[in-house]
Design a protein that fits this description.
disordered C terminus
Length: 482
């Protein structure tokens, strides 16, 4: 099967997984939001602030290192080393969270229940190493069907458990067990679908080589985590559980939609970038396609949130979630900007430049995100936090553009021309929505936007469909793919 065929099959299966996973996640979160209170979502947000920070160190970047490595430089013992190192490290992290971090978190947020919640959620750190290397093997083969199906099965079952627990009055624990049950099931399913089995051996040289690459990747994850969660930490500490719950809902809806769709493409293209890392012309061609198709798919969703968030939230979830509306709209606007250079870190890692990826993450976290979000929260609460994120995305866009030009020869003008018309009509629609207060007029505006957007992107969608339809009958060389 050619690389082109594997790419399209990978995108197709990840898209199927996205529809099920993302649709299910949104549906379950809306059901739970209806059954639970903002405070419940705020408490689980408290827990994940600290758990997420420890999870950054989950596999020490070993997964990324094994996926990125060329076939001739990868040995079977590398997988075994990563597996056993991951198990030991997972036990260390679980112990740390259960006995050190949980009391600190409970004291920091003044929520004693975190002493019980965090150890239970930390069980996922013990389970994850049991399937991580299996997924690495499957990812390198670009056989994403065997990744998507197990995850969807486990999440469907876990979601049913969470809703039943919420109906039975378990409150925040329904959210806790949703995560743990999903992780528990996926271990057994991946053991079934994967043919790889670990052997009792360990190599110091393998560990050194893997960790050398993974060190930079882990550093990048730390700063990316701070970028994505510092607002949670600050809001939770200064404003409390209920404001954090409202902010979490707004962030979850906008980020979940955007990140899950981007994940479909990025999961496929990270190993692809690794395979073609020596051909920057091909890397550039792939990258611009990724950005454009992300914009075609995600922009209408973000615009829908900007225009229709108020009626959807009030009708679907109730008055108790009103404070989530404006932050949700602002963060959807931030997503519009983010998409223009959304996959640059995946590109940098894929072409073997994890150190540059780390430097970039440090700059955007310490120099842009944290200062803007801090000022926003202190002076304007959760609306200020969302506004800080929007301004940060605009600044980071220009930093991204500069980095891409230096590394891969991708110019700002090429990025903008690649999806410029889509961005312009999206920007105009967003601005017009500010001056319209009537829900019916907003619906009409959204329909008009969809018509124009479809007209602009029609040829690209048809081209993508033709390429997918003909993927098994047309064999292209690497230079002609996509």
């Amino acid at each position: 099967m050619s690389l082109k065929n594997k790419i399209f099959d990978g995108v197709a299966w990840n898209a199927i997984g996205l529809v099920i996973d993302n649709g299910l996640s949104i549906l379950v979160k809306l059901i739970l939001a209806r059954l639970l209170l903002p405070e419940d979502f705020g408490i689980i947000g408290f827990a994940f602030v600290f758990i997420g920070l420890v999870e950054v160190f989950g596999d020490l970047g070993m997964s990324a290192a094994l996926i990125q490595r060329k076939n001739e430089n990868l040995k079977p013992i590398d997988y075994d080393t990563a597996y056993w190192a991951g198990l030991v490290w997972g036990l260390v992290l679980f112990t740390m969270l259960s006995f050190v971090v949980s009391p600190i978190a409970a004291d920091f947020f003044n929520e004693s229940i975190l002493i019980s919640i965090i150890p239970v959620l930390s069980i996922t750190l013990l389970l994850r190493p049991l399937w991580a290397v299996h997924v690495i093997n499957i990812t390198r083969e670009l056989d994403f069907k065997r990744i998507v199906v197990p995850r969807n099965i486990s999440k469907i079952f876990a979601s049913v458990i969470a809703v039943l627990m919420a109906l039975m009055g378990f409150g925040v624990w329904s959210l806790v067990f949703q995560s743990v049950v999903s992780e528990f099931l996926v271990v057994f399913i991946y053991l079934y679908v994967s043919t790889w089995r670990p052997k009792m051996r360990f190599s110091k040289d393998s560990m050194k080589n893997i960790f050398g690459f993974g060190l930079y990747t882990t550093g990048t994850k730390i700063f990316n985590y701070l970028t994505g969660n510092f607002d949670y930490l600050l809001i939770g500490k200064l404003l409390g559980a209920s404001p954090l719950g409202n902010y979490t809902l707004g962030y979850t809806v906008t980020y979940l939609v955007r990140s899950k769709i981007m994940e479909v493409i990025n999961k496929v293209f990270y190993p692809v970038y690794s395979k073609v890392q020596d051909n920057l012309v091909t890397v550039k061609r792939y990258y611009l396609k990724v950005i454009k198709y992300n914009c075609i798919i995600i922009y209408p969703m973000m615009i829908g949130i900007i225009l229709l968030a108020e009626p959807l939230v009030l009708i679907g979830l109730g008055e108790k979630w009103r404070e989530a509306i404006v932050p949700m709209q602002i963060m959807a606007a931030a997503g519009l900007v983010h998409l223009l250079t959304s996959s640059n870190t995946v590109l940098l890692r894929g072409i073997g430049k994890p150190k540059l990826e780390l430097i970039f993450s440090v700059i955007k976290t310490l120099g842009v995100n944290i200062p803007l979000v801090t000022v926003g929260v202190i002076y304007y609460g959760i609306i200020g936090a969302a506004t800080g994120l929007l301004i940060a995305k605009i600044i980071i866009f220009f930093i991204n553009s500069f980095t891409l030009q230096k590394v891969a020869g991708i110019k700002f003008s090429e990025i903008f021309m690649n999806a410029g018309s889509l961005f312009v009509i999206t920007l105009i629609t967003s601005i017009l929505s500010i001056f319209i207060n009537n829900n019916m007029l907003l619906i009409i505006l959204f329909i008009l936007y969809l018509v124009v957007q479809i007209r602009i992107s029609y040829k690209d969608v048809i081209q993508l469909w033709d390429m997918y339809r003909n993927r098994k009958t047309t064999v292209l060389t690497l230079d002609n793919e996509c």
